[in-house]
Fold:
Amino acid sequence: MKLPLYCMACGKEPWTQIEHAHNTDLIRGLVCNTCNSYIALAEHGKLVVLEYIHHYLKHPPLAKYHIPYSISKRQILLFILSGRSPITRYRTITAR
Structure:
């Protein structure tokens, strides 16, 4: 997978945030500041969900990789670029 330049939710702005699900601590996507705020508000029921935010939350682009948010930003980006699930590699990295 190529590292995206733009937000995975709106596709309009460059991504600036690594967005994750707080209940699972897994990365869902790379989003801009605006979409990150919209996602947080939508999850807490404080915003009427915009169609593209709803789609992003129903089909998070990076969920299939099961990338834990607790690893470093560098490792997260390397996993995205490799296109492989980091679970096995992550356990190997942390076991050392």
Remarks:
- The first strand starts at residue 17 and ends at 20.
- The helical segments are 33-43, 51-58, 73-82, 87-95.
- Residues 89 and 95 are 10 Å apart (CA to CA).
- The chain has four helices and two strands.
